[in-house]
Amino acid sequence: MGKKDPRIDLYVANAPDFAKPILTEIRGRVHAACPEVEEALKWRQPSFEYKGLMCGMAAFKEHCVFGFWKAPLVLGAAAEGANAMGYRDKITSIADLPPKTVFKANIRKAMALNDAGIGVEKPAKTAKPPVVVPADLAAAVKKNRKAQATFEAFSPSHRREYVEWVTEAKTEATRARRLAQAVEWLAEGKPRNWKYM
Questions:
Q1: Are 137 and 66 in contact (CB under 8 A)?
Q2: 31-40, 48-57, 83-92, 180-189: which range is least confident on average?
Q3: Distances (CA, A) of 104 to 67, 122, 130, 191
Q4: Cα(59)–Cα(19) distance, integer angstroms
Q5: Which residues contact 35 (CB under 8 A, 6 or more apart)?
Q6: Which residues, at least 6 apart from 102, have a Cβ–Cβ distance to it below 8 Å?
Q7: Which among 129, 141, 125, 121 is positioned nearest to 181, based on CA atoms?
Q8: CATH class of domain segment(s) 6-116
Q9: 40 in helix, strand or coil?
Q10: Is the pLDDT of residue 71 over 90?
Q11: Which of 41, 145, 180, 196 is the most exposed place for a label (fewest CB within 10 A)?
């Protein structure tokens, strides 16, 4: 037996007026196609789980969205252009939803994928090129032994953060200020984004 989440009731109640019947219809269709579905709030949006994440919906100011977690496997070519949550089309009325038979068939496909433990293949990550330290940054860091030791001890990602910060400056004055700030922070042993740690 499935499980409804009262937070989804609240989400629907607080949605814009045009969205309430759309969200209610989607919710009803998901429960009708998968009686074992469990509702949850993920990323502040209603989600439906069946042996793992299956699908989700959301309401915005002027449209709603619905999508499958494994959209490429459920929808095939129709999923092209979908974001990570499988959201692709903007839904502004119940008429924008696929026919009930198609909707149900897609829910069943998503259930079968979760039953089988099949996931979507993630694209292989490409290695980033080595960090090329600009001459002015290298010279500024070299003048301060503590800064140089810190910079050399940093991982490539921490070095890249400083290099990108300095090289993205639009004016020479900004670049000079960033160089001075970089040396100061490096001398203190701080990574570029130390404020957020």
A1: no
A2: 83-92
A3: 13, 26, 49, 51
A4: 6
A5: 1, 2
A6: none
A7: 141
A8: alpha beta
A9: strand
A10: no
A11: 196
**CA–CA separation, 144 vs 188, rounded Å?**
11
Residue whose pair of structure tokens reads 């129709």 in the numeric block: 78
Backbone angles phi, psi at 71, to 5 degrees: -50, -45
To which H or E segment does residue 49 belong? strand 45-49
- Confidence at residue 77, expressed as pLDDT on a 0 to 100 scale: 62
What sign results for the dihedral spanned by CA atoms 117, 119, 124, 128? negative
The residues spanned by each domain of the chain are 6-116, 135-196
Rounded Cα distance, 136 and 114, in Å: 54
What is d(CA 4, CA 49) in angstroms, rounded to the nearest whole number?
11
% of the chain beyond a pLDDT of 70: 93
Give the range among 28-42, 48-62, 122-136, 164-178 with minimum mean pLDDT.
Answer: 122-136
**At residue 154, does pLDDT exceed 70?**
yes
List the one residue out of 50, 43, 123 whose CA is nearest residue 87.
Answer: 43
